[in-house]
Amino acid sequence: MRVGVAGVWEDSDYARVRNLCDGMEGWEEVYKKGSRSIYMQTIGTSSVTMFKAKINWPDVSAQQLFDTLHDGDYRHKWDKHMTKSVDIGIINPNNDIGYYAIRSVTPIRPRDFVLQRSWLDSGKEKLLCSHSVCHDDYPPMAGHIRATTLLSGYLIRENGKGCDLTYVTHTDPGGKIPKWLINRVSKVMAPKVLDKLYKAALGYPEWKAKNRPNWKPWSYPDQLMESPRIELAKCMPRDYVQEVMDESGSEEENENESD
């Protein structure tokens, strides 16, 4: 897996995410409350910190959480920061590409992403991962700054009737936000993100029972037969030249890389 490059994930890609989730070397614990722990680590030469969260939810099953994260229709209900999402298409039954736009608090400008999601369900252990890619039909939207997810991943393991979740994320929002501010805000927001996801997962069974209860293409690949197929030729890495609105509201002509 390389940022900006679309393609089928290999076993080694999933192993890398699993190792990041399970390994503790180089991680600094920055928050601890009950079963919830937040860690941070600088990866390579990036000035944007990678964060890791670990938590146990005894009343949310692994499958329930996996379905919550996958279901795009439900995300519109619980993720109030997302303003737009498009399922662009699938590469194969375990890899798809989508477009996402999110709002930000003033004076931070809205961000958008083109993400490849890749998942592996081995029963008691489930992985859902993503990284930024490019697509000809989805350049940065007007008024938005293209952000880059270097890597994110959810590792979900069964634990009795509940589950253990480890979440890693390494994202550069782009634009002119100071990197130290990005790192500080991310550390504060991480517990809140977990709380929001937990509440969403608790409410998912009731919501799903009323909204296409049998539609779960991430678990039933035959439901993907009518989904658009990704043309990888449209996903070649590139630099986007866009009119960037900086965080103070002025405009400048700038090159904003998406890979």
UniProtKB/TrEMBL annotation:
Q: Which domain of life is it from?
A: Eukaryota
Annotated transmembrane regions: none
Which key words are in the record?
A: Acetylation, Cell projection, Cilium, Cytoplasm, Flagellum, Lipid transport, Lipid-binding, Membrane, Phosphoprotein, Transport
Localization in the cell: Cell projection, Cilium, Flagellum; Cytoplasm; Membrane
User: Matching SMART domains, A to Z?
Assistant: START (SM00234)
Listed GO molecular functions?
Answer: lipid binding
What's the short name of a Pfam family annotated to this entry? Answer: START
Instruction: Show where the START domain sits.
Output: 25-206
GO BP: lipid transport
Q: Name one GO cellular component term.
A: motile cilium
What's this protein's name?
Answer: START domain-containing protein 10
* Annotated organism of origin: Pristionchus entomophagus
